[in-house]
Amino acid sequence: MARMVQHRGASMVNALRGSGRASSSVSSPYAALLTAAAVGGAALTVGVACLWPQLIEEYAGIRIVVKKVRCNRSRGRGVGTGSKNEDKSDKGGGDAMSAALRDVIQHEISHQVHERVNAMNKAHQAAGWGGKVFPPTATLPESQRMRVLVTGGAGFVGSHLVDRLMAEGHEVIVVDNMFTGRKKNVAHWIGHPHFMLIVHDVVEPILLEVDQIYHLACPASPPHYQYNPIKTIKTSTMGTLNMLGLAKRVRARMLLTSTSEVYGDPQIHPQPESYWGNVNPIGPRACYDEGKRVAETMMYAYHNQSSVDVRVARIFNTFGPRMHPNDGRVVSNFIIQALQGKDITIYGEGHQTRSFQYVEDLVTGLTKLMNSDYGLPVNLGNPEEYTVKEFALLVKELVVGSPSAIVHMPATKDDPAKRKPDIQVATDVLGWQPRVPVREGLSKTVAYFRSELEDTGEIVPTGPDATRPKPCCSNVLSPSREYEDHLYAETMPAADETRLY
Fold it and tell me: Which of 208, 379, 408, 426 has CA atoms 20 to 30 A from the CA of 365?
């Protein structure tokens, strides 16, 4: 029994030392102190008569108060004798202090130590995998807990949606081919009994049993979706077809994340859901614009013909932490350039307008729409409108001290002149509207990109030309043999590149 408790005490010491809350330079006497404490007994305050009238030592949140009391040889403690030899040994510093305290603490120790050990043991048992501690989640009864599929769930928006669903207590399956998704976005859930990550391309069928499907899979930034326009079209069409087939088979409700791009370069401002759009079907953005328009058509065809329960969200510009640093969008490019003191590049005169919503607001809108009884398309965006130049100036203001200058480059083809959502339907039907002010959300996003830069040293902003997403951090795993690690479980039969976590 003593050996078991001593092992727990040593484990606690190692864990606390590794937590960064205590300096490793204090390891010698106090590590021994805590180990001895774990072997010992029960009291909160330990009395020791030695050369320290009062010692208050905080070691990683465990407070041990040593007060001066009267102790003598008759108590058999072997400390506080007042002998000259003892005085000399006391002058030795840490070793004498450690020996004296250990001798007493073996009989009387803080119950706080035991409470901390018990708490750590419970946390390890709750983790169920390698002692990993996960973010808190609600506990739902079986009748309320759903199994939810999120395609593209390792991406920017998808990973935030996964966080919300996991926190609510649901079981979540993420399917992502990692083209723009990043494993680090969902790494904090890997190993949780309610979470599964499957590396799989939605253009290939997959057989699962789920209650709801959030279909987010598709590159969404112009440089990325223009890199392989045929694959972008296949993702929006074949991928949506496969997910609709799955929804039909298992009778799951399915939500498609469509886009404000279905409105093209709008001639109505702001854009309501009833507007049919103004899209160039053969332009450089058509692979994404028309792909999403076809995906919406397929959603309602399955609903009308096969009674599949569908939802469609038309998402406007969204920003926040976990944006891919190389996605080439306005928010990420401006922030990266400002943080690195590089020129902030605006394509065109900067008079074109955009409306920016924070990712937490979008996730709230998606979950509200999924769980509502409304089946027609719904705009989800922030009506607060900025010109691109105004937004660049705001970013520069928030990145205090940035020497970046604003420069203008040639305008890109088919870039919409105005973009602003009419969210009356979302407000009336879902009771939804954005809550996070743009300035507040931008401050959080600047902090995120600042941490990304600390990891990488430099990020080269992506221009308007088509390009493949680049790994931007040394700890980002690309879809390659690097996935063959201790988390690898099995290869799914649907496709060679499918892997399960």
Answer: 208
121 and 7: one domain?
yes
Please write the tens of the pLDDT for every residue from 309-346.
999 999 999 999 999 887 778 898 899 999 999 999 99
* Number of independent structural domains in the chain: 2
- The percentage of the chain sitting over the pLDDT mark of 90, rounded to a whole number, equals 53
pTM of full prediction above 0.85: no
pLDDT in tens, 359-385: 999 999 999 999 999 999 999 999 999
The type of residue at 374 is: Y
Are both 99 and 207 inside the same structural domain?
A: no
Q: Is residue 136 part of a domain?
A: no
Question: Is residue 178 over pLDDT 60?
Answer: yes
* Active site (catalytic) residues: 288
pLDDT at res. 15: 43
Whole-angstrom CA distances from 182 to 159, 175, 226 are 9, 12, 20
DSSP letters along 415-435, please?
Answer: --S---B--HHIIIII-----
Cis amide linkage into residue 136, ω under 30° from 0:
no
Residues 52 and 108 in one domain: yes
Which backbone phi and psi does 450 adopt, to 5 degrees? -65, -40
- Tell me which residue range forms the domain holding 102: 2-127
Q: Count other C-beta atoms under 10 Å from residue 294's C-beta.
A: 15
Token match 């390891």: residue? Answer: 27
Which of 148, 371, 122 has its CA nearest to residue 246? 148
For every residue of 236-263, DSSP letters joined together read IIIIHHHHHHHHHHHT-EEEEEEEGGGG
Which two structure tokens, joined as six digits, stand for 336?
């990266």
Domain boundary, last residue among 96, 127, 158: 127
Give kind and range of the element (H or E) at residue 87: helix 84-90
Looking at 127, 158, 187, which one is the last position of a domain? Answer: 127
